[in-house]
Amino acid sequence: MGAERTAASASPAGGPTVSVAIVRARYNPYGGAERFVQRALGALAARGVDVTVIARRWPALREGGAPPPVRFERVDPFYAGSLWRDWSFARAVRARLALRHDALVQSHERIPGVAVYRAGDGVHAEYLAQRCRALPAWRAALVRASPYHAYVCAAERAMFTHPALRAVICNSEMVRGEIRSRFGVPPERLHLIRNGVDLERFRPPAAAERAAARDALGLPEGAPAFAFVGSGFERKGLAGALRGLARCARPDARLVVAGADKHASRYAALASRLGIAQRVRWLGGVDDVRPALWAADALVLPTLYDPFPNAALEALACGRAVLTSTKSGAAELIEPGANGEVADALDVPGIAAALERLAGAADDAARVECARASVATLSLDALAGELIALYRALIESAAP
Question: Domain limits of the chain?
Fold first, then answer.
């Protein structure tokens, strides 16, 4: 299931084409992992990599072939329940890969036996530890006793200790350290390749663009505004953001929430209990997050656990400061007081104080420039170059 061959055709760069199968089970149009894959696909295709996506569903690619060289192969076995869903997909993918002859297989799912794993979801055991920190004791006990979480942790350990694993793509130093300490993966197999961002699309707005974005969202003139961007509100820390807003010393501050969650009504109810319902704007899932970022002074994302949130990259590229947590890989890019703030996800007073410090940050030219500069090297072209260099190194070092 690892390195077997390269395609015979030539790439636009003049060398042999690299054929890569990318495995991702589920598609969420507002999910960060999917946005990463979509961006990586486009960048890799432009560099002559022959890519096939293997997934249950991938609506953004036309089944039967998106514009070459990207293809889509559906693997969608029957299931009932989340544990069976993940187990059946992993089993079916292994069977499908046995019939293919890709130079490399890069999985975004925990499937033992793949050659390359992108740890975009981080370490599940670490996520559980952080999640349980925020739960009442009885709920934390239920989470720890969950057969599904037990399965994911077992699959994760089996994958990281499998002899076929040749490389792990880590999108933050935080994740690289967690994998090494928990599973003993040799450091030479742990490759730091941060997410990329479209630096042309995500850019600081002109004054008129910012004014138009604020008007469209109904934000009062002069009122501080913060954006929360992400799906999966519990993990992303929306409760902490709402509580921080309620304690913020700026009673005119607003929060714009862009993201989808099946329990969104619970968070709307929390905003009502905190007395800030009129200060929160709920956008739901959006295809374009730029207006929310352009209208805001800063992104607030006090996530319980996030290997490397794309929203933070997009906000920084737009010149927006970022407030994130100590268990977010994006914290590695933050210089407190310059391009953002870092607080513990459960430290509500700390979040509130950080919001106060970030009020008006979008109107500070030096802070806008600092935020933009912190992601200047993380272009999509740079991402593609790093991935291709890793692929070629793995293929060239493979045994015949």
Answer: 19-196+379-396, 207-373
The partner residues of 22 in beta bridges, in order of sequence, read 53, 106
- How far apart CA 302 and CA 371 sit, in angstroms, is 18
Query: How far lies 380's CA from each of 88, 169, 377, in Å?
Result: 33, 16, 9
The DSSP annotation for 3-58 comes to -----SSBPTTSSBPPEEEEE-----TT-HHHHHHHHHHHHHHHTT-EEEEEES--
Fold of 207-373: Rossmann fold (3.40.50)
CATH of domain 19-196+379-396: 3.40.50.2000
pTM score, whole prediction = 0.88
pLDDT tens column, 200-259:
999 999 999 999 999 999 999 999 999 999 989 999 999 999 999 999 999 999 999 999
Q: How many whole angstroms separate alpha carbon 338 and alpha carbon 120?
A: 27
Q: Which of 38, 41, 60, 63 lies closest to 50, judged by CA? A: 41
